[in-house]
Design goal:
The chain is α+β, with helices and mostly antiparallel strands. A hairpin with a 5-residue loop joins strand 4 and strand 5. The protein starts with 5 loop residues before the first helix and ends in an 8-residue tail after the last helix.
């Protein structure tokens, strides 16, 4: 899904990350969602022994946190830049204010969430066919 609406795009705040810099850590407050403008993010979790399990790598045009920002109080994983990256940050309170004012913005976020559900369902199907490995 492309950011076509200026009213939504204007909510984003720029942030630049150096390689290996964290966007957020597991258990940080889920108070924003993110759009990768350039570069890439590595999203992963860690078990009690410190082993990392990569969840996904995100690149330009990919969103992160769109489901969590609406449904949870904290992030359940880590997000770290794989290379120098430009991220747009959309704060939860700004998103909710816009949704209150604009039915088209509400529709946009519903579509974004629906697309995330489809992606996650496909990923679950694929995971059912393979074993999980730790790094």
């Amino acid at each position: 899904m492309k950011w076509q609406s200026r009213e939504i795009l204007d909510l984003g705040k720029d942030r630049h990350l150096d390689k290996e810099e964290f966007l957020f850590n597991a258990m940080d407050p889920a108070d924003a969602l993110y759009l990768v403008k350039s570069g890439s993010l590595r999203v992963y979790n860690m078990d009690e022994q410190g082993r990392e399990m990569e969840i996904v790598r995100l690149g330009p045009g990919d969103f992160l946190g769109e489901a969590i920002v609406f449904a949870a109080s904290s992030f359940p994983f880590f997000a770290q830049a794989s290379e120098r990256s430009h991220i747009l940050i959309f704060e939860k309170r700004d998103i909710f204010d816009l949704i209150d004012q604009s039915p088209s913005a509400a529709r946009y976020f519903i579509e974004l969430m629906a697309q995330k559900c489809i992606v996650l369902n496909k990923r679950m199907e694929a995971l059912g066919l393979m074993t999980v490995s730790y790094t």
